[in-house]
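Thread: 2-acetamido-2-deoxy-beta-D-glucopyranose complex, take 2
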Amino acid sequence: SPRVRVRVSPRVCASARVLTSASPSVTCTSLTLPLFLCPPTLLLCLLISVQSQNLVTDNVSVVEGDVATISCRVKNNDDSVIQLLNPNRQTIYFKDLRPLKDSRFQLVNFSDNELRVSLSNVSLSDEGRYVCQLYTDPPQEAYADITVLVPPDNPIMKSREDIVSEGNETEITCIATGSKPASTIRWMKGDKELQGKSEVQHTYDRMFTVISRLMLTVTREDDGIPVVCIVDHPAVKDLQAQKFLEVQYKPEVKIVVEFPEGLTREGENLELTCQAKGKPQPQQINWVKVDDDVPSHAVITGTDLLIENLNKSYNGTYRCVASNSVGESYDDYILYVYDSRAGEGTSPSVDHAVIGGVVAVVVFAMLCLLIVLGRYFARHKGTYFTHEAKGADDAADADTAIINAEGGHNNSDEKKEYYI
Ligand SMILES: *[C@@H]1O[C@H](CO)[C@@H](O)[C@H](O)[C@H]1NC(C)=O
Ligand SMILES: *[C@@H]1O[C@H](CO)[C@@H](O)[C@H](O)[C@H]1NC(C)=O
Ligand SMILES: *[C@@H]1O[C@H](CO)[C@@H](O)[C@H](O)[C@H]1NC(C)=O
Ligand SMILES: *[C@@H]1O[C@H](CO)[C@@H](O)[C@H](O)[C@H]1NC(C)=O
Ligand SMILES: *[C@@H]1O[C@H](CO)[C@@H](O)[C@H](O)[C@H]1NC(C)=O
Ligand SMILES: *[C@@H]1O[C@H](CO)[C@@H](O)[C@H](O)[C@H]1NC(C)=O
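Output below.
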C-alpha cells in the first residue's frame, strides 16, 4: 500500500497524534500549524490518506534469468500520467513510451488503470526498489521491490569414511553452494528424518553457501540404506543428493547338526556345519572344544566337523569361531553321547498304543452294531399263521402230503413260527 511521510511536530495538536498512532495508514504531511487550526489538520490528514489509496503495486520475486513483471495499478484514475522508474530513479516507461535504452524492458499492458512492464533475463544487478509514480498533486508513489533468487548448485555429499563399522559414529556432510537466499538442508535416512547441523557462509555478491553435517552411529541394519540430503530453496524443487551407507559388522555364527537327526548315540557319527555371515565375509572359521581338545580323529573340512564312532568321552561343548576385520563371534554345540541302545523301543511302543487304540475302537463299534441289530429284530418278533395243512407232517413224500392234506383245511390247529 502507498506510503505517506509522517512528521509529528510538537506543534501538531494532541488529537492528530492519537489519530496517527491508532491507524498508521492514515498520516499527516508536515503541516506546521498553530494549535487553534487543529480540526482542519485532521480533515486534511484523512483526505490525503483516502486519495493515496489509488496507486498500488506488488513486490516481485524472480529467479535469475527469468522474467519479472512489474504492474502499476490505479483505481479511479482521473487521466493522471503513470510512469515507472528504476532503483536509480531513471524513467523506464513514461506512459507507453520507453526512454530507457534497455530493451529487456517490454510493455505488457498499458491502459488508464495499469502500466505493466516485463523485465527479461533478470540478473542480480536488477535487484532494488522500482517506483510507480502517478502525476497527481501531490504526486503519488508506490514501490515494487524486485528480489532475485539464485538457486544453489547441485548439492555435494561427502562421508568421512567409505565403510563404517557397526556401533561406530560417522560424519556425512552436504554442501549447497552459491544460492540466494541461503538454502536449508534436511536429512533423511531411509524414510526417517534426521537432524544435521547447518552452517551458513556468505560468499561474494550477497550469495550463500550452506554446509550441513550429520553425525550418525550406524548399526548393521543400516547397511545398504540410503542417506539423502534434501536442499530446500524457493528457486528450485527436488534438489537432493544421496549416498548408500556401507556398514561392516562382526560375523553371525550358527551351528547346524547335519547328522544324526535324533539322539547322538555311542558308536554313531556326528556331523556339524558352521554357518557364518558377516561383512566382510569371515575367511577364517575354527572348530574348538571348550576346556579340552577336539577328538584326534575328528575331521574338519572347511566349515564342517565330522566325528566318527562317538564315545562318551567326547562329551563336551564344541565351539565354532568365526572372525573378520571387525571382530570375532562364536556358537556352541553341547555334545551328550547316549548309550548305543538309548531311546530304542520308544517309537515301537507308540505303534502298539496306536494299534491298541484302533482295536478298541473297532470292538466298540461292533458292540454298538450288535446292540442296534438286536433291538431291531426284537421289535419284529411276532405270531404268524401258516397254511401248512395238518397231516402233511407224517407224509412219506410231497405227493402224499398234498393228498393227505386234501380236505384237511377245516383242521383249526395252528402252528407258531418265529424269526430269530
Ligand atoms: C515489499 O518488500 C519490502 C521489503 O523488501 C517490505 O517492506 C514491503 O512491505 C513489501 N511490500 C508488500 C506490498 O508486500
Ligand atoms: C490489459 O489490462 C486490461 C485490464 O486489466 C485487460 O482488459 C486487457 O485485456 C489487458 N490487455 C493485455 C494485452 O493484456
Ligand atoms: C542474460 O544476461 C547475461 C548477463 O547478465 C548475458 O550474459 C546473457 O547473454 C543474457 N542472455 C540472454 C538470452 O539475453
Ligand atoms: C571310548 O574311549 C575309551 C578311551 O577314551 C575307550 O577305552 C573305550 O573303549 C571307547 N569306547 C568305545 C565304545 O569305543
Ligand atoms: C571403529 O571401529 C573399529 C573396528 O572396526 C575400531 O577399531 C575403531 O576404533 C572404531 N573407531 C571409532 C572412532 O570408534
Ligand atoms: C557322557 O554322557 C553320558 C550320558 O549319556 C554319561 O553317562 C557319561 O558319563 C558322560 N561322560 C563324560 C566323560 O562326561
